[in-house]
Amino acid sequence: MGSHFLIEGVEKAVQAGCKCELILVGKGRVRDMAFLDKIKDFSWIKYLGFISDEELYIKMRECDILAMTRTNSKFANFGFPFKLSEYLSIGNVVMATEVGDVPLYLNENNSLLIPPEDSNAIASAILYVSENPVKSLQIGRNGLNTMKEKFSIERIGEIFISFLSKI
């Protein structure tokens, strides 16, 4: 999990004068949730815990940036996180760590790619969105187009049917 790098990055953006709020959702393993004690005094962080799918999609649409930060682990370096295609489907800016197959699909035109475990890059990406709202909207739209081209149910269905026809 790259959550502590995300928290550090948002904290740096806040210290640089960005008026932002980090909203954390979900519930992980007990050992992964230890950071909650460390963040309870940060007024710019809201931890919502587990929320329904409907609530999640409403929250996602309200956010300026949807963040998928991962560490440079063996697990993170294999494949493409399913959650990332969900984030792209919202049409808002997506910030993603350059690990695994992520750079095969995402680039500076359709997302904010950051190196793993780099809170300075996270802060810079947040500040970029804050200072460049029009460009950021276009990046979000481009991300949505990438999702439609690469990960839509129609596209995945075409790939699957093509695979089956070759068997």
Short summary:
By secondary structure, the chain is α/β, with parallel strands linked by helices. It has helices spanning 3-15, 35-39, 53-62, 82-90, 102-105, 119-131, 133-151, 153-165, and strands at 22-25, 45-49, 65-68, 93-97, 112-114. The model has no long low-confidence stretch (mean pLDDT 89).
Question: How many domains make up the coordinates?
Answer: 1
Largest sheet: 3 strands, parallel
Strand content: 5-15%
* Backbone shape: globular
- Overall average pLDDT: 89
- CATH superfamily descriptor: Glycogen Phosphorylase B
Supply the CATH architecture: 3-Layer(aba) Sandwich
CATH topology: Rossmann fold
Rg estimate, integer Å? 17 Å
Spell the H/E element sequence. Answer: HEHEHEHEHEHHH
What is the level 1 CATH name?
Alpha Beta
What portion of residues is helical?
40-55%
How many helices? The count is 8
The SS-based structural class is: alpha/beta
How would you describe this structure to a colleague?
With 167 residues, this protein is of the alpha/beta class. The chain has a single domain (3-165), classed as Rossmann fold (3-Layer(aba) Sandwich), CATH 3.40.50. The chain contains 8 helices and 5 strands. Strands 3-4-5 form a 3-stranded parallel beta sheet, with helices on both faces. The chain is globular, with a radius of gyration of 17 Å. It starts with a helix and ends with a helix.
